[in-house]
Amino acid sequence: MSIPVLPRWLPFEWIVAIRFLREGRTQTAFIMGGIAIGVGVIVFMSALLSGLQSNFVRRVLTGQAHIQLLQPKEIARPLRGGDRDILQGAIVQPPLQRLKGIDQWQSVATQIRAIPDVLVVSPAVTGSALVVRGDASRAISVIGMEPELYFRIVPLAEKIVRGSTRVTVSDILIGTELASDVGVGVGDKMRITSATGSENTLTITGVFDLGSKGANQRTTYIALHTAQSLLGLPGGVTALDVTVRDVYAAETIARRITASTGVEADSWIETNQQFFAAVSAQTTANTAIRFFVALSVAFGIASVLVVSVVQKSREIGILRAMGIARGQILRVFLLQGGLLGLGGALAGSLLGALALVAWQRLARNADGTAMFPLSLDPTLFALALLLATATGLLAATAPALRAARLDPVVAIRG
Amino acid sequence: MADPSSATTPVVRLQGVRKSFNVGEPNETEILHGIDMTLNRGEFCAVMGPSGSGKSTLLNIVGLLDRPTQGTLSVCGEQTTSLDDHALTRLRGHSIGFIFQYHHLISAFSALENVMMPILGDVTFPNADMAERAAALIDSVGLTPWRDQPVMQLSGGQQQRVAVARALAMNPALLLADEPTGNLDTRSADAVFDLIRRVNREQGTSVLFVTHNQALAERCDKIIQVIDGRVVDSGAQKN
What we know:
Helix content of chain A: 40-55%
Oligomer: heterodimer
Order of helices and strands of chain A: HHEHEEHEEHEEHEHEHEHHHHHH
Order of helices and strands of chain B: EEEHEEHEHHHEHEHEE
Largest sheet of chain A: 6 strands, mixed, barrel
Number of helices of chain B: 7
Structural class of chain A: alpha+beta
Strand content of chain B: 25-35%
Radius of gyration of chain A: 33 Å
Largest sheet of chain B: 6 strands, mixed
């Protein structure tokens, strides 16, 4: 009869810990189930929230630059006489904001491009104009830009529903609503009149859908030079649009740009503060949920191990009598905590992944497309495993210390 | 260190050993009142006495599970008074085997694995040698057919024989048996006693055998009577 040998690669503590867990398999299964549900909830919620946030960010940033440098606003200066303390005008009226370019924009753009985290700097001229076709007229917002730069910031190609993104000096891109309102399509001509009375007739080369009715009614894109002459700003730009490598670093970089160029730079974070407040609230809520789930998992593991120490106190006593050191007993119970955490986390990660797949299949828009893309990020699963194992080890510390400190005489006596 | 292989070498020597509980408190109680005792290599000694007389406390002290409040104890020639917990644990693991009234086998393991436990705890990783030694010990207690059975499926007598095999796993110089036959029927009790006696004779293992059974005690080399925490009679048997 061959002699069965325990696994040679497993040390004593692992063998005893695994056997103890296997012996109390019902207890082990229940606590692992609890941990799995907890970890599953954490994985599912974290992936959902992260997907939701990146979807929001993507939506916000597909229509705007990460940082925008705008021309300084004109301010009213009180009229003073010879005595600096005495005002001569009784009423100070806010001045009208004329269309004005950024001073020395070429040099400012060069300075910004030199910042390491900056990817693209695109000059733009924006202003309002009027589209007239027959009896119909519509007020529009004209954005003059250099397509090769601007389309790296706003990927308009994704939004084009008819035509192309070609924008030469005689071309214009318009929204679906405007096209419908004035009854035009790709290849048609459109006459545009600016507030200063300048006119230009442009060919529609593309119709886009920005996902918002208002934006589709008003927004139009033309070439930078065309916009400069139409809006009476030859050689000037009213804005510099900037994209950066890390979208969440935009605010810091914007401050750096303002400090180095003296031009006011607004980051997308500043212009979307409400959105950020919502994201921050969601993150806080998610962190709180994660904390409490982890806490309940920890208490579950600790309670199971406390019971196990009581149940096994005689066996611990006899192990001590056989010459097993306190440190070995400590490790047996720490390992049980770690293994419970790890096992529960593996099952929980699977559960969370299944829930995410189910969510992606079930939660759909009216047109059948996914509500928003969810990614099964391996880092999230690795973190969940690490967190649960660490929680298990931490939760096992008190019972393990108790087991290691058991007086063998008392333990054997029971 | 004295050579424990010599027949006259004391394996255990107690000098003026006292043991008190709740030391320094109003309810301080002295259980052992100055025990002097020697157990030589290969001696089989019965310890008798009424319940509460201090037999188990004496055994716990000799087994290094408890420390004396006063006096000295040497095991296998090593003075234990100044040893720390780690050194005591190591000495206990290498030199002393325990058999209790209740077998205290680890229910998560088979009979063979229970016998392997003391060796595994000492060397950490399992190997073929320890499995072979455990199998030989299981064979020597006549349990080879039940070797791979979970210990809870064995009878009381079989479990106690596994406990004897486990106590011998590290080839200890001293075997401490605390009423090992107390829970067994006469036949099983005789079998377990014979087994311990055989180990004592064949391997020269010294044995302290606590029992209430006069018939078994009379089969030992000597009997120590412990009454009210004192050794009142320590003498060799006629046989």
